[in-house]
Amino acid sequence: MPDIPSQETTRILIVDDDASVREVIQVLLREEGYDCTAVSRAEDALDAARLTEYPLVICDVRMPGRDGFWLLEQLREVQPDSAVIMLTAFGDTEAAVQCLRNGAADYLLKPPKLTELVRAIERALGRRRLELARHRYRRSLENRVQEKTAELSAALENLQATYSQTLWTLVAALDAREHETGDHSQRVVRYTLAIARRLGIPEAQLPDLGRGALLHDIGKIGVPDAILLKRGPLSPDEWTVMRTHPQIGCNILRSVHFLSGTADMVLSHHERFDGSGYPHGLAGEKIPLSARIFALADTYDAMTSDRPYRAGVSPEAARAEIERCAGTQFDPRCAEAFLSLPAQELAELARGRELPAA
To answer: What strands, in cross-sheet order, belong to the sheet with 106-109?
Structure first.
């Protein structure tokens, strides 16, 4: 009775018309702990792949009848996640390069050396694991955003009479997830509307402005907790995920009719006046005015609020920093409007002097 491989053993399918090559590779890889199946024809390999999942296939390029090119193409349909290493004779590297273009993970000259073969297998399996993880994460993120978007749309459509309170409750929950308090977005709304009034923004435009400020971080429902709540600095890959939240938020709001007017503000709320922001590197007046106003309110609240990893600065220090960054991070006209707000008024806004309607 043959040995039953453990659940952790990786299955490898070996395809070569040369019996000696098949036997040598099979013996070597079994000694390395792999579960190997060997066949002599591409057609037999395809039949095996239809019955059993093989994370890795080692295949000769040139074989009688169907060759490695044919098998590689068929495997993309039958087992698209399988990594394929091609074996080629000396002087036939052009064919191997063509295999790489067609999706093969690697190629080796025949007969392959054990060390080179093992390294190639480890590389191919490592890339496969990474790609599968990316696919799972992408599907999970898409499903999560779709689910949350559907939930939000349904809730808002069914509660139009009381949607204002619904929004405040939702945002308080989102704030608590990241900031351990439900007050951040409420303060930012108050600061945003105060700056807008200083700029002379018509009252009719203030409701959309307030809702945009309230919902600016709604896209973070699509950011995993491991990234959003990480205490230390984010890695480049984690920053890439984090920087998707403006687009996620924009997509969510565009799908809800009475919130669609806030989508551009949410999309652009991390742009900077000098063009060094994200997600699109907009500069100057190409950034929506609502987002330029919001940037000041959000920065002021961030600087003056305590965080688990640092204490907030004084209002005076925050105002000085905003004045210093006018023309680079902030629109100078918006910064001037903010700086014209009396310190007493800012203190009252911070304490919640007024709760704007959403």
So the answer is: 35-39, 11-15, 56-60, 83-88, 106-109
Distance between CA atoms of 97 and 106, rounded to whole angstroms?
Answer: 9
**What is the spatial distance between Cα 148 and Cα 156, in angstroms, rounded to a whole number?**
12
Q: Among 322, 277, 272, which Cα is nearest to 297's?
A: 322
**pLDDT exceeds cutoff 90 at 280:** yes
Q: For residue 116, what are the domain limits?
A: 11-131
At how many degrees (to 10) do helices 206-214 and 289-304 cross? 50
pLDDT at 261 over 90: no
Looking at the fold, whether 110 and 240 belong to one and the same domain comes out as: no
6 inside domain:
no
Asked if the structure places residue 138 within a domain, the reply is no
CB neighbours of 305 closer than 8 A, spacing ≥ 6? 179, 184, 312
User: In whole numbers, what is the pLDDT of the chain averaged over residues?
Assistant: 85
What would you report as the CA-atom Rg of the chain, rounded to the nearest whole angstrom?
29
Residue 281 zone, left/alpha/beta (φ > 0; ψ -120 to 50; rest): left
Q: Is the pLDDT of residue 4 over 50?
A: no
Q: Which two tokens stand for residue 206?
A: 């203030």
Answer yes or no: do 195 and 260 share one domain: yes
Instruction: Name the residue among 261, 315, 317 with its Cα closest to residue 290.
Output: 261
